[in-house]
Amino acid sequence: MGDEDDFVIESADAGASSTIPMEAGQIKKGGYMMIKGKPCKVLSISVSKTGKHGHAKCNFVATDIFTGKKYEDMIPSTHGTTVPIVNRSDWEVIDIDGDELTLMDEAGNQKTDLNLPSYPEDMAQQIRDAWSGGENTVTVTVQAAVGIEQVIAFKKDG
């Protein structure tokens, strides 16, 4: 028998990835995909016919979910690509200090590592105006993908 020291595992993680592999032909309009390393929402897909040398090609037009920048990509329909795992959550604004937000969710957890959004340009000022020193309850929607979190929407209650 070998020494037990031969099988020591120094560290382990759950193996959770921020993206999942998917065949290009399986991606649908309105879905998400990675283009040039950016998480994007697919606006349109056009599929070319199979040529004499191979595969049908999918031409994707998509926008970056954080900046709104438009990207295009062409991938053979049977080839693999990656799809970001996108999560959304709602948080109540507790404080605004400069551009930094202090947020709280329904469970009472606080988040202090987010700034006011830079896209679209006027949203940060709209959130400031709606919050106006705590008179109103302002709820922001935080979207997270590939290690990036950003406020993408807000609503005012009261």
TrEMBL record:
SMART domains: eIF-5a. It comes from the Eukaryota. Translation factor that promotes translation elongation and termination, particularly upon ribosome stalling at specific amino acid sequence contexts. Binds between the exit (E) and peptidyl (P) site of the ribosome and promotes rescue of stalled ribosome: specifically required for efficient translation of polyproline-containing peptides as well as other motifs that stall the ribosome. Acts as ribosome quality control (RQC) cofactor by joining the RQC complex to facilitate peptidyl transfer during CAT tailing step. One of its GO terms (molecular function) is translation initiation factor activity. This is Eukaryotic translation initiation factor 5A. Belongs to the eIF-5A family. One of its GO terms (biological process) is positive regulation of translational elongation. eIF-5A seems to be the only eukaryotic protein to have a hypusine residue which is a post-translational modification of a lysine by the addition of a butylamino group. InterPro entries: IF5A-like, IF5A-like_N, IF5A_C, Trans_elong_IF5A_hypusine_site. Keywords: Hypusine, Initiation factor, Protein biosynthesis. It comes from Nitzschia inconspicua. Residues 85-155 form the Translation initiation factor 5A C-terminal domain. Pfam families: eIF-5a, IF5A-like_N.
